[in-house]
Amino acid sequence: MTLHFEWFGFDDAARMALAHGLRKEVFVDEQGFSLEADRDEQDKNALHVLGLDETGAARCTARVFADAPGVWHAGRIAVQRGLRGQGVGRLLLASISNRDFPVVQAIVVILAAWIVVVNFVADLLYQLVDPRIRLR
Prior knowledge:
The chain is an alpha+beta fold. The protein has helices spanning about 15-30, 35-40, 40-45, 90-95, 100-130, and strands at about 5-10, 45-50, 60-70, 70-80. The chain has a four-stranded antiparallel beta sheet, sandwiched between helices.
């Protein structure tokens, strides 16, 4: 899996819909927050970033505010469930904020390789668990 990052404003309806969809999945469906709590007026004033895979699916998103020249803070950081728990979100956010794109690219390549390995092992285990499944 390869991710690319797109920055956009609230007026970009297509990208905002992808970001809202991922935020709903993480904050509303998984964590139990209300949709109204997630969608607030601050979305209109924020700069948004969206991490998309090669199919255009949203894998991570954040909204960013400029507090002062050169001082930014991020909020509503949402990372899809399968990509969490390994410090990737923290490193990814730090790399984006520092505009350290080689680190972002390296993280994406490592995650993609890990996903391929996990899926391959799962395919092998399915064959052991269910004798009807045979790899060709």
